[in-house]
Structures are given as C-alpha cells and as structure tokens.
Amino acid sequence: MFSNFALFSETTMSIAERKEREKAEMRSLILSAAHHIFKEKGYDGLNIRSIAERIEYSPATIYLYYKDKNEIFYALQYEAAAAKRDHLIPAAAIEDPWNRLIEFGRLYVDFGLKHPDWYDLLFLTRAPMEHVENQECWTLGMATHSFFVETVQACVDARYFKSTDTQTIAYTLWCHAHGLVSLFVRERMRMYPPEQREELAKKSFAMIVKMAEGL
Amino acid sequence: MFSNFALFSETTMSIAERKEREKAEMRSLILSAAHHIFKEKGYDGLNIRSIAERIEYSPATIYLYYKDKNEIFYALQYEAAAAKRDHLIPAAAIEDPWNRLIEFGRLYVDFGLKHPDWYDLLFLTRAPMEHVENQECWTLGMATHSFFVETVQACVDARYFKSTDTQTIAYTLWCHAHGLVSLFVRERMRMYPPEQREELAKKSFAMIVKMAEGL
DNA sequence: AGCCTAAATAAACGCTGTTCAGTTTCTAAA
DNA sequence: TTTAGAAACTGAACAGCGTTTATTTAGGCT
C-alpha cells in the first residue's frame, strides 16, 4: 500500500533514467521533424499531423511530449534564435567597436535575407507573446540583443558618437535593420523591381552607417 | 431560342440596374460586416461564418459575392490603405518640404501605433502577395508611397540634403519607421518596460530626424 | 504469471474555408 | 395569368486543422 514511498532500487533507477532519456529523445525527434517540415514547407505547412506522419506516430502521441502546438513553436523559435546567434558570432571577434557594430548589422540583415523563415519566426510571427518571456528562446534572444547594445555602448565609450544615449542609438539602428528585413520577409518589396531590391538594401545599409557616423 | 440576343426592354434595363445595385449593396454589406468584426476581434477572429451570422445569411451566400476569403482580405486592405491615406493627409498641406517630410513620418508612425490592426493588414500580414499588385489597395498604397518619395525629392531639390539619392533616402527613412511600428505591432517591444516604450519610439524618431539632417 | 502503470492510438469534437446539390424566389415570355 | 427558366440562396457536406477522450497495447514489478 505504501510501496510508492519505498526507495527506488538500482534497476528501477536505471530504468527511470532510460525512460527519462527516451522521453528527451522523443521530444527531440518531434522537434527535428518539426524543424524539417518548417524548412521545407514553412510555418503554414507545419502541422501536428504532418509531424506525426513524419515520425510515424499518431498525432495524439505528440501531445504526450508537448503541451500544445505553441510549445513546439517556442522550441522552434529557440532554434531560430540559436541560428541567428551563430550567424552573428563572427562579428564578436572584431575588436574595434565601430567595425564590430557595422559587421553585426551587416550580418543581422544578411541572416534575415538568407533565412526569412527563421527571421519571421523570431520577429514577425504572431505568437502568444504573453508567455514567451518565460521561454528559453527569449533568454537567448535577449542575450544576443544585449551583445548588440553593449557594442553600441563600446562605441559610445570610445567616443565614436557625439550622442551618449546608447539605448536610443541601438534602438534606432535596430528599427532600421528590422524594418529593412521585414519588408523583404513579408514581401513588401514588390513595389521595387526585383533586380533593384538587394541593391537598394545594400545602399540603405551603407546610408544608415553614414548617418550613424554623424550621431 | 435566341431571346438571349434580344434587346433589353426598358423594364429589363431598370431591373438589371437594380440587380447590379443590389449586388453592390450586398458586397458592401458583407464588407462592412467584415470591417466591424475585424475591428472587434482582429484578423484572427474574422471568419466567413461570423460574417454570415452578422448579416443573417448563410455562409455559402458570401461566396456569391466574393470569390474567397482573400478577396475580402483585399477589400479590407483597401480600407486600411484609405484610412492610412486619410491619416497622412494633414501633412500634405505643409509647404516646406522638410517640415512636410517630418510630419509625414510622425503621422505614419502615429497611424501604426494607433491602428495596429490596419497597419498589420497593410504591411505585416502574410497574404498572397503575388496577386495583390492587381488590387485597388495596391494602387492606393503606391500613390501614398509616391507622395512620400516626392516629398523626399522636394527636399533633395531644395538642397536639404547633401545626398541626391532620393530613392535610397526615402527607403532608409521608411525602413526605420516601418521597423519601429512593426516592433510594436508584433509585440516585440516586450524587452523594454511598458512605460519606456513610447518614449523610446519618440526619442528614436527624433534621432532619425537628426540623422537625416546630416545626410 | 498476473497486476499495475505508462505509452500509444483510433476516433471523435469543434473549428476553419469552401463546394455542391437542391430549394426557393424572381423575371421574362406565352 | 400562367409557366419555363434563370438567378439567388441555403443545408449539408468535404477536407483540413488543433486538441481531447476512451480504449488498447506494451513494459516492469511483485
């Protein structure tokens, strides 16, 4: 009757460990399936049944490992955040803060244009943002953003700007980069001829750099 | 047998006119219902059945007046474009191109923050953009955008900038404003404390104006 | 071997956009 | 005024979605 309270035997322990490991493996199996489908068909083409089919389980099984589709969304958003961080890492090696800032910006835009789906997931998708603060992806995103702000701060400290309002400078530069990428990702560049679009983006990036020099 | 080819009688004509009028009235009835539901429940809360219920027709009837949900979406997008144009109109009265440009930008951001749903519909919603070029909303949006570019051109002509690259200047300013609004609309300002957000937007707008002065 | 728990699933629910066969309403000609 | 035909409208269904439930299957413990 009170067997629940008995200490675990060694075999029980190892079995419990295996169970836990299997649970984690199943979660990552589901996630990697979601990842693949997302990359192939985009977020719209991603649904529970297609995940289930790919891993050869029933749709209901998914719900034993993820509470709902949002949890999968959060996990995927974490992958996007990691991909973005990895893409930006090369900039961190640059010592001069000004050059680091420029390269960071260039890589940020580059990431957005090369991986529109990831960017979309991170910054453009409607999601239950009320809960995202508690998610890993949020923490990671904040860390990357902090790195950006710190680089701006380093530029301020090194007197690259006249202005010392680090937060506003960072935010303003981010707005530009985010706006630029967003117009591409959500296909609002159609008002420009296809062959002009990328050039316009490059010119605009160069222009914001010039503008920032005068700050 | 060939009665199809007979000339319409006068009564037939007037009836045909009434029919046409009724058709147009029905279309606008559907659209205004969609408009209301959209304003109350947002785009996600808008569906064919809710429109049908509101106008007291069956869902199938909707399809006699609009090909599919996308056509309603386009019509709604036109309303959003019209609302945006109306919001920006006051700027057109300002004679000095530089002040006109600033006010245009201020009103643009103001519109986005005051009507996030409209802004979303215009610039952030995933839509079958392949066909939107043929829609009225696109024409209207292009006209408003042209007004913006012309204002930048007027500033260039009046030597407000050293640079003469009108297109890139306009695009860069647009990127900033669009990015700023997008971060609000898609709730990515959560990394800043609520009470700081609007102030940051204002400061950033002031900063981009300052930056533009040095162009 | 038998019991209990945990894993997996088939089937359903309620929601969506959309279509179609069938009914009702209206109009034009006899 | 009657009647054939067209036009307007709708109930019911389909296929797809996220999610839940009752039930079956499998695995580990006594």
What does this structure look like?
By secondary structure, the first copy, chain A, is mainly α. Chain A contains 10 helices and no strands. The first copy, chain A, has helices spanning about 10-40, 50-55, 60, 70-90, 95-115, 115-125, 130, 135-155, 165-185, 195-215. Residues about 1-10 of chain A have low confidence and may be disordered. The interface of A and B includes residues 133, 186 and 204 of A. The first copy, chain A, binds a DNA duplex (30 and 30 nucleotides) through helix 1 and helix 3.
Descriptive tags:
mainly alpha; DNA-binding; homodimer; 215 residues; disordered N terminus
Please count the helical segments of chain A. Answer: 10
What multimeric state do the chains show?
Answer: homodimer
Spans of chain A of 5+ residues with little confidence (pLDDT < 50)? Answer: 1-12
Order of helices and strands of chain A: HHHHHHHHHH
How can the largest sheet of chain A be summarized?
none
Proportion of residues in β-strands of chain A: under 5%
Total beta strands of chain A: 0
Mean pLDDT of chain A: 91
Helix fraction bin of chain A: over 70%
Which secondary-structure class do the elements of chain A indicate? mainly alpha
If you compute it from the alpha carbons, what radius of gyration of chain A comes out, rounded to the nearest whole angstrom?
Answer: 22 Å
Largest interface: A-B, 42 and 42 residues
The coarse silhouette of chain A is globular
